[in-house]
Amino acid sequence: MKRAVVFAHYDKQNIVDDYVIYYLKALKEIASDIVFVSCNPIENKNALNGLVSKIIDEHHEEYDFGSYKRGYFYLRKNLDDYDELIFANDSCFGPFYPLSKIFEEMGKRDCDFWGISKNNFGYKKSVRRFIVWRPHVQSYFLVLKKNVIKSPVFDNFMNSIKHEDDKRIVVSNYEIGLSEILKENGFRYEVFVNAYGRINNITILKWRQIILKHKMPFIKCSLPRLVNKSSTTVEGYQDIIKQVSDYPVELIENNVLRTQEIKNGRHTSPIFIKRLFFDILAEMPFFVRKFAALFISKFLPFIRD
Prior knowledge:
The chain contains twelve helices and ten strands. The protein has helices spanning about 20-30, 65-75, 100-105, 145-150, 150-160, 165-185, 200-205, 205-215, 235-245, 250-260, 270-280, 285-300; strands at about 5-10, 35-40, 55, 85-90, 90-95, 115-125, 130-135, 140-145, 190-195, 220. It is of the alpha/beta class. It folds into two domains: about 5-195, Spore Coat Polysaccharide Biosynthesis Protein SpsA, Chain A (Alpha-Beta Complex), CATH 3.90.550.60; about 200-305, no CATH class. Helix 1 links the parallel strand 1 (about 5-10) and strand 2 (about 35-40).
């Protein structure tokens, strides 16, 4: 298999972090070419020497799909050279498991495109404030086979990507929209981690279980950065990773410190209580969890990381 990767990057300080370099090295083991696309000019381009075939670092406000679009346009004239096109981004730390094993497993599946995980829920098309049943492959890691990337359907979709003011529209039109339009045109998909299908976004609410039980190779960056602390607990994430991998967890710790996302590092509730509390909450319907997040933030701050 000859593969190309379009890697979408964003950093507040416009640098390529060490955890990204680790990820790119892992991608380099399974891909021939990596097109690195950042939505702002990069300060330390030399960090990418020997890892990527092309750097596109220009300001745009089209989120990850805007970067995917630019990388795709760069590769479009040479798509015949590749068997698969991979879209990946820097929203994850990892991988904790070899990507080669995942590609070996997914190569046995009868599908036209696949991802690491899927979400069965998404914003309603007409009123983007409600969560409804909209199954889709999550776009932080998406693999498209030749029959997809050479199709007019896919090319038209990539050409349709533009700036949107509301990130919910980006998710609805592009992340969810891509899976929907490909399925509508007869393309079939699979996912590597196919578990907890009735839970909205397992990468957040079931991150621990999918790493330990389903060989999930990543943890979303938002978790150690405590963006989701009203939805789950990540205390002890280092030990979870060390159970399955020799991944250098200091890459995560250093990134979190640099990006200064942790506002309060004190843990005021025992870890087993927090895990039990949030595991039960994960099983609740979306509207219950939405209300609970507000309640926790205001009245139960001690239960949060």
